[in-house]
Design brief:
Length: 167
């Protein structure tokens, strides 16, 4: 799958759904392999409009992730209202686990909440083996961060994926 962060400006474009459909057609990427990441602040700008856009994107098969979860407004009603697929735990909670018990409790709670709602939970900013071990033990669905790879140009990313690096 491919995850793409949407800026507030992009999310507010009147033709966002049409643009996404055109890109899916042009690239041949199945819609269910595209995950669009939005933040809580984007949703807050215009809740009714956001709900409508997210519904249309879901209707064409695109997956939606709530990015940086826990750092914005964190209204639990968003999890019900917007029918998202994934929660992305902000790196600020990951940075000091497993040593910081407060962060560990917050991450464990987000994982439990997300899983109870049938959502995938992704930990952002994983940089150490200790963080990875903690997240595996807590059944985190996915990780992302420098432990896996630094940001790469497309050609180098392709090589990394072909090499099949596992953690």
């Amino acid at each position: 799958s491919v995850a793409v962060n949407l800026s507030a400006r992009q999310f507010r474009q009147n033709d966002l759904v049409e643009v996404v459909q055109r890109i899916l057609y042009e690239t041949g990427l199945p819609a269910n392999l595209l995950e669009l990441e939005i933040t809580e602040s984007i949703i807050m700008y215009n809740i009714n409009s956001a709900e409508n856009i997210i519904k249309k994107l879901r209707d064409i098969g695109v997956r939606i992730a709530l990015d940086d979860f826990g750092t914005g407004y964190s209204s639990l009603s968003y999890l019900k209202t917007f029918s998202i697929h994934s929660l992305k735990v902000d790196r600020s909670f990951i940075r000091d686990i497993p040593d910081n018990e407060d962060d560990a409790v917050i991450v464990r709670s987000i994982l439990s909440l997300g899983h109870s709602l049938g959502l995938r939970v992704v930990a952002e900013g994983v940089e150490t083996e200790e963080q990875l071990a903690y997240l595996r033990n807590e059944a985190c669905d996915e990780i992302q961060g420098y432990l896996f790879s630094r940001p790469l140009p497309a050609a180098e990313c392709e090589k990394l994926l072909q090499a099949g690096k596992k953690l």
